[in-house]
């Protein structure tokens, strides 16, 4: 009887602990988020304020310093505000401005004033600022454990729609917008971006450089396109990261001689999706060589992931000549069987690469090629998870749109580092917790708005007074 009573008490205590974890207050969650944010800023962006203050300020009359203006735009995206007005409403809450000053030691301007500054700033200023912080993180070896093969930084490249101005864009935007005409004759004007994103083996994606797919504001014979924009983006990557070991990951649009030439000139590697019908001469040679055993190499792999049995069959052909290049062809046919329903599903992945392919590394190269998918997660974050990509923070000034996007990219970098800290990853995995990133960001906003955080900041400042290390997972 005594053993049963002790067991019942132990079960009650355990249930109480789980319940307490599950009902942790918004203030406590917000405190954890704030603590991790300050750690990231302290360890990985220690010179942020100094760098912002060194930006070229085009204003003649200044009520706020340039670092106060740009930091306010940055915090707008860090707190995942949907618009300038949304952030202004948040800043009118009881403790927001006081807490903002305690955290950043900067005054908080209105978003209209920030927008006026971004209209006047040269876009390359904030772009160079982003690349400075990426370079600093690389020098600190923050991403080195997440490299593929312990050597290459895998840069996924893809384009996405950013803005749609309908059939009547503002006259200031019209010279830059891309004109699209449907089969029914409907005309629309859009703004698009081409983004290079660092893909890490732990699932982290860090924006590197953005190139706008846009006309140059002058009369044109042909509109801008993704491949033209890629040439400009590649030049930026080489300029900002001249010695980086880069492997480009791209979709089927990039299986062409242009990307091969650019990668050869810059000393880069590439893995591109290879669709049926692309480069017909290469496909003809592949199909003829697959029947020759000494040319076509094979490897099989089986994996159990309950309730699925996964069987993969790899094939590859080396040293295919294409114009002045030598490339390698790879294919993975994946068969997934549900052990409970016996339902089968087959998938096929085909890539071209200039990486040397062999029996030992073919699986890793193919998995790296499939990691290109993380750039789609990046776009999903920008559009649907707080990045407010489709919202026009400025409706008439194209340079302002570019500057707002550069600030958004810097915030996205910080958020990725924050979400991959060991502490927040453990918080998400705690048993009895049904925590989402959205809830944690809401709790951080709540902390800003309605709680006094002077004591919390004092604790953090004591912690920051010594050199610290942030561990990523």
Short summary of the structure?
By secondary structure, this protein is α+β, with helices and mostly antiparallel strands. The protein has helices at residues 2-22, 26-44, 48-53, 66-78, 84-91, 96-104, 111-120, 123-139, 226-240, 257-266, 280-289, 362-370, 374-384, 398-419, 422-429, 437-450, 454-464, and strands spanning 153-166, 178-181, 187-199, 205-213, 246-250, 269-273, 296-305, 308-322, 325-338, 344-353.
**What is the overall shape?**
globular
Q: Share of helix among residues?
A: 40-55%
Oligomer: single chain
- How large is the count of helical segments? 17
- Which value, in Å, is the CA radius of gyration? 26 Å
What is the string of SSEs from the N terminus onward?
HHHHHHHHEEEEHEHEHEEEEHHHHHH
Percentage of β-strand residues: 15-25%
The rounded distance between the terminal residues' Cα atoms is: 46 Å
Q: What is the count of structural domains?
A: 2
Main sheet: strands, sense, barrel: 10 strands, mixed
Mean pLDDT: 89
Query: Structural class of the helices, strands and pairings?
Result: alpha+beta
Q: Catalogue the unreliable spans.
A: 11-23
Q: Work out the number of β strands.
A: 10
